[in-house]
Predict the structure.
Amino acid sequence: MTIYDISEKAGVSIATVSRVLNGSSSVSEKTRQKVLDVIEQYGYTPNAFARGLGLNTMKTIGIMCADSSDLYLAKAVYYIEQKLRASGYDSLLCCTGYELASKTASMNLLITKKVDGIILAGSNFVYEKDQDNRYIAEAAAQIPVMLLNASMDAPNVYSVMSDDYTSMYEATRQMLSDGIEDILYFYNSQSYSGKKKLAGFRAAMAEAHPGQEPLTEFYRGSHEDIHAMVRHLNAVRDKGARFHGVIAADDTLALAAVKYAAEAGYRIPEDFSVIGYNNSMLTECCEPELTSIDNKLETLCQHLITTLLGILEEREMPKKTVFSGEIIRRGTTRK
Amino acid sequence: MTIYDISEKAGVSIATVSRVLNGSSSVSEKTRQKVLDVIEQYGYTPNAFARGLGLNTMKTIGIMCADSSDLYLAKAVYYIEQKLRASGYDSLLCCTGYELASKTASMNLLITKKVDGIILAGSNFVYEKDQDNRYIAEAAAQIPVMLLNASMDAPNVYSVMSDDYTSMYEATRQMLSDGIEDILYFYNSQSYSGKKKLAGFRAAMAEAHPGQEPLTEFYRGSHEDIHAMVRHLNAVRDKGARFHGVIAADDTLALAAVKYAAEAGYRIPEDFSVIGYNNSMLTECCEPELTSIDNKLETLCQHLITTLLGILEEREMPKKTVFSGEIIRRGTTRK
DNA sequence: GTGAAAGCGCTAACAG
DNA sequence: CTGTTAGCGCTTTCAC
């Protein structure tokens, strides 16, 4: 079934069929109904490729994320897909992994497939060296690029993020004011937002203990291997470090800290405090439940999509938007 | 930049350009290089829409899943996307929610977008009434439909799944043989695989306690709300039910059972046992860690993709493939 | 209000 | 080995 078949059966021209298909202005109600009837009767569906060729778009957005099975990114992808679909766009998903080369490859692939825009979900897409971010700038030369939880200054690149610096700064201050001085910062990412978080922690610690180097530990294993994280903390302790609080860049790390503390015989929160990040479902999975920072992912995604749609309609849109996070207090911190 | 521009600059015909682009057999190395040079120089990329129009495919597979932020489905989507990409296919993701109407709508949308095949990730797509599965059969009339963890008899519908019945049967037998007689089966899905699991449990219980109706509880709240699940179990207990073991259709439910038991003052596994399903990261999140059934998701996905690719190449492929699950014993069951 | 016709950019059959 | 040409199915001027 093509538009030709329909036009023939309906006794009109293909232009007319096309017009009723696209709800175009001027078609007499009579022919309109006639065409609609024929379409209905023969169950015709327009060919999206032909349409794409003519209009140069198939209303598709590329979503790139390092690992869509990661708890946080999965949620981000979910929200993004939902909101895109609600606006008539489809989502082409690309799980890129964490290497620059494969990110670049995926980016090119999406451009080849002629998506209307690309969303980079997660801060790990923006690197420290400008040169490593070239792949983003180059993509943006062709289509709008949206950054979720990262930021980068380049034409046609838009950022929506949570204020990770301030969130971590506040979390650290809270723990300090709870009377815990020996805090370990436990993190697993040097990404854009990873650095912001670390800086927030450092700033608060520097204020409380000027001139003193705070305790930080970088974990580089699997993002899901809680046992490995616990082992990592044990190793830190065994090397002689003393800490009675952990601020983690991520709920999984925080959960590992809770496990670590329990195994070491600390009472939580009396002897040991933990604060996580993302306010994911993991916060309810341990005992006591995890205090965590909610970075308002759904809001971020909503805003990101709104911005993207605005850009696609050629409206002027903010290059960068920042939302505040919020500490959700649960059982791993003192009241 | 179109193929015409390139052909002109290179002083050849568009057919020749097309040939080098598609690595076609016979092009002299000289012209080939010339064309390649021009392409390189002008940075030309083929237009995927035009290509799609001609070939009637854009090498894209539709993935439908109810909720890609669900721990298990997120992993499934991840594996599927990875494996598809490795074979040169893109993934159009559709999070459909759990209602039939929106599933049908998404299905039609994917077909409209002319994907080469559709993967239904998760057993919730297959309903009890044949009539509710019409949307699958109708889609399959046009393109191959793959079912992950579900099964349905219809032309052009292929199923890959884990043997949930046997897994649950074995799990139940194990718990019985550990000496626990009052077992509660806790589940949240009446889907295809949901019913298989329940049947496995019932079979084992019927063997052990002929004629006795086993304890089962259906939870219908949010899949992520652990507190609500715990409340549900408390309510069951308050209604007078006695149980010292829980077999859950899902790790999240199992985690809730662990929490419930801990709050009720049971020692695990001395006084209370729990077995979950999926062997997800949640198994490591509670104390003691969760015994769970591994249903070999990655294997299933790998096989599903292999099958799909075979079908697309018009090879004969099995309509239904079943893999065995495996119990992974951890701390919530006796040794 | 409707039709004719010119693309959109590519592939593939057919000639040479 | 290479070029010519006819589609693929739809949108969109431009006439009438």
User: Anything to note?
Assistant: Residues 12-16, 19, 26-28, 31, 50, 52-56 of chain B lie near DNA strand D (CB under 10 Å from a C1').
